[in-house]
Amino acid sequence: TNRTFTMLKPDSVEKGYIGAILEKINAAGFKIVAMKMTQMTTADAETFYAVHNERPFFGELVEYMTRGPIVAAILEKENAVEDFRALIGATNPADAAEGTIRKLYAASMGENAVHGSDSDENAAIEGFFHFSGREQF
Length: 137
Ligand code: ATP
Hints:
Blueprint: E1 2-8, H1 10-14, H2 18-27, E2 31-38, H3 42-48, H4 58-66, E3 70-77, H5 80-88, H6 101-105, E4 114-116, H7 120-130
Antiparallel strand pairs: 1-3, 1-4, 2-3
The chain binds adenosine-5'-triphosphate.
The site of adenosine-5'-triphosphate has 10 residues, from helix 4 and strand 4.
């Protein structure tokens, strides 16, 4: 088994989708091994998304990710990174497959409900960005 990192983004929390999304995550066989509700500061979001800092949408992305609380979690499953990205669907919900979390709960490319790490290495980095070792069960 291995692990991935996710955030239920501010739009998911605002719309009351925390329970529904966690239900999908559990139903797909992921075990929650860390979880908290928190709000990212501007500096947090700029660091977390530093890879995108030259992109035209960077300012909008930081505004979005800091405007309210998120739910951060570490998830465990065999093939976690790849299987979780399949569960959430394409970045743009218009392109996301039927039944995926983004198809069901995301409004747009800019407000796409959830994050999923794109590699095992980034899953570990992102997990430690939000959780100490003692919080990762
Ligand atoms: P995430 O990293 O959140 O799981 P992703 O890997 O599917 O998403 P990335 O290309 O890494 O997508 O982009 C990171 C985030 O930046 C997206 O989830 C989305 O919130 C935002 N984003 C990406 N492209 C755009 C865009 N063209 N316009 C607005 N926001 C965008």
